């Protein structure tokens, strides 16, 4: 992951220990009603986290059930199920909702969460679309299989080497020569996009107008999202969260890097057009009484990307268009990701934008704790300034009662998202409510969990995954070396 210079290691905030009475009187543990009519019993929120536990076909497994059951036992206000694919295409062990056959497994997941939370926790599913990302190829494989030689390559190589013979070189000869060329030579001969495919792996973009599938996204995505939302409703979820954040298709439409010229890019209105059309089609399908929220970025944190001013505009327009909640995140883009190893895929949380998305304890002077809440608060203020009361979920380095309560008190957010703290100790919300804050297993913001996610391995927490491995019934992974569910 990106590492700021100079680096400063930040201790955890001093633990705040509310009494049960203080917790009861707090904003954090007070209810909130959404415009859809759905009531959340409190403002504690577990944002989406992919744990890599679905079956290779994208179905709910026993491991998925156990993972969410564990969170539900503490009865938070809401849990958002991990990014779940809306298409019926193979995507490894990531949950999918792109076909009817996924509904029964998802319904079982809803039932497990209802039972474990005694009906208190509201359950949403995050609906995602993503474009194709290929693994970084070996150099010889790239030139053999993916590279398409043309006259420009021949001309550049001929000029570079001062040898006109290259102008008439056959494809095979050119491929072989480039496979052996120096990096500096490749820099001059290949197009930027070809260099990226070679060094990072080919990655589709919403601006690839030459590809009919990409060109037609504005035609295909609204109904794909609406179909998925309808399945979510039938599975029994309380609502859906449209994934408009991070490195994925819808966030790429919103991005300032979206230069599409077909009315779905370039200007603020153009970039927002498809997200609004998707929302409208979803809403038309599920009706006003079903909760439809969206997650978007308060800042992309990339060069030439959208900043907080764009986010303020998008937030207001999405609120005006009737989202029931707006969940805010930060960064998490491919654009500044680190080069992957050969055979691995680029991971969007390795650059500075990833650092801002899941801020670690090893940080800059500002530190990780609620570091992006000031920007998120600006988005909320813009929404309120427009006379709209859409609740805003804030997140990023929030893992302490006073920190959470302060955010709510100052009106910087309406719901408090805590992903890693809930992973470190799924019981922490309950412990706060019961005046047992001193028992909370506190997240140290090491990002060990994020490292597992990066390797597409089952996500666990370093604070508990080696504990009590011999406990009867403990679900284990990695050949028995790691437990998959936090001990109770
Ligand atoms: C292992 C892991 C998986 C994540 N998966 C998702 C995801 O599927 N969708 C999403 O919007 N955010 C995802 N996130 C980001 C979190 O929802 C959250 O925004 C981020 O971790 C910052 O909050 P925190 O400081 O409370 O952890 C993931 C985070 C982690 C650690
Ligand atoms: S591994 Fe555990 S302690 Fe480290 S960041 Fe993740 S949840 Fe927090």
Give a structural overview.
The protein has 19 helices and 14 strands. With 488 residues, it is an alpha/beta fold. It has 2 domains: 370 residues, Alpha-Beta Barrel (TIM Barrel); 62 residues, no CATH class. Helix 13 packs across helix 15. The two termini are 31 Å apart. The model has no long low-confidence stretch (mean pLDDT 97). The structure holds flavin mononucleotide and iron/sulfur cluster. Iron/sulfur cluster binds next to helix 17 and helix 19.
Sum this structure up briefly:
The chain has 488 residues and is an alpha/beta fold. It has helices at 20-25, 62-72, 103-116, 139-146, 151-161, 171-180, 183-189, 192-200, 212-215, 217-235, 249-254, 268-286, 308-320, 352-357, 373-385, 401-409, 420-424, 428-433, 448-454; strands at residues 8-9, 32-33, 39-40, 44-46, 78-85, 122-128, 239-244, 291-297, 326-329, 362-363, 392-394, 415-417, 476-477, 482-483.
Number of domains: 2
Helical amount: 25-40%
Q: How much β-strand is present in the residues?
A: 5-15%
Number of helices: 19
Structural class: alpha/beta
CATH superfamily of the largest domain: Aldolase class I
The ligands bound in this entry are: flavin mononucleotide, iron/sulfur cluster
CATH class of the largest domain: Alpha Beta
Number of strands: 14
> Main beta sheet: strand number and arrangement?
8 strands, parallel, barrel
CATH architecture of the largest domain: Alpha-Beta Barrel
- Report low-confidence residues grouped into runs of 5 or more: none
Shape: globular
Mean pLDDT: 97
């Amino acid at each position: 992951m990106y590492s700021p210079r100079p680096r400063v290691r930040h201790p955890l905030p001093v633990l705040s220990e509310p009494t049960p009475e203080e917790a009861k009187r707090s904003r954090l543990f007070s209810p909130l009603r959404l415009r859809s009519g759905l009531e959340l019993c409190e403002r504690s929120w577990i944002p989406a986290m992919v744990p890599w536990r679905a079956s290779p076909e994208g179905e709910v497994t026993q491991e998925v059930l156990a993972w969410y059951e564990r969170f539900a036992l503490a009865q938070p206000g809401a849990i958002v199920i991990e990014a779940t694919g809306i298409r019926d295409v193979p995507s490894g062990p990531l949950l999918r909702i792109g076909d009817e056959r996924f509904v029964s497994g998802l319904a079982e997941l809803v039932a497990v969460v209802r039972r474990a939370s005694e009906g208190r926790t509201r359950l949403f599913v995050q609906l995602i679309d993503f474009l194709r990302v290929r693994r970084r190829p070996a150099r010889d494989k790239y030139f053999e299989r993916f590279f398409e030689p043309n006259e420009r390559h021949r001309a550049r190589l001929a000029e570079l080497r001062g040898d006109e013979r290259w102008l008439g070189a056959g494809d095979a000869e050119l491929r072989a020569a480039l496979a052996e060329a120096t990096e500096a030579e490749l820099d001059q001969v290949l197009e930027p996009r070809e260099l990226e495919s070679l060094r990072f792996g080919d990655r589709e973009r919403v601006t690839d107008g030459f590809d009919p599938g990409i060109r037609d996204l504005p035609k295909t995505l609204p109904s794909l999202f609406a179909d998925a939302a309808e399945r979510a409703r039938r599975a029994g979820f309380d609502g859906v969260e449209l994934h408009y954040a991070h490195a994925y298709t819808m966030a790429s439409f919103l991005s300032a890097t979206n230069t599409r010229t077909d009315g779905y890019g370039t200007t603020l209105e153009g970039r927002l057009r498809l997200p609004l059309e998707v929302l409208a089609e979803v809403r038309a399908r599920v009706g006003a009484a079903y909760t439809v929220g969206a997650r978007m970025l308060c800042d992309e944190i990339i060069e030439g990307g959208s900043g907080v001013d764009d986010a303020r505009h998008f937030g207001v327009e999405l609120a005006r268009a009737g989202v029931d909640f707006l969940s805010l995140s930060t960064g998490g883009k491919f654009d500044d990701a680190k080069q992957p190893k050969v055979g691995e895929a680029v991971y969007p949380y390795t650059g500075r934008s990833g650092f801002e998305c899941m801020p670690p304890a090893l940080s800059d002077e500002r530190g990780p704790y609620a570091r992006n809440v000031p920007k998120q608060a600006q988005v909320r203020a813009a929404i309120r300034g427009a006379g709209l009361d859409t609740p805003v979920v804030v997140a990023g380095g929030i893992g302490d009662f006073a920190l959470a309560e302060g955010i709510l008190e100052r009106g910087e957010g309406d719901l408090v998202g805590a992903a890693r703290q809930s992973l470190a100790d799924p019981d922490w919300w309950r412990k706060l409510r019961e005046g047992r804050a001193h028992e909370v297993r506190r997240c140290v913001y090491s990002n060990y969990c994020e490292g597992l996610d990066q390797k597409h391995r089952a996500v666990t927490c370093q604070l508990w995954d080696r504990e009590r491995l011999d406990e009867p019934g403990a679900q284990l992974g990695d050949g028995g070396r790691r437990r998959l569910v936090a001990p109770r």
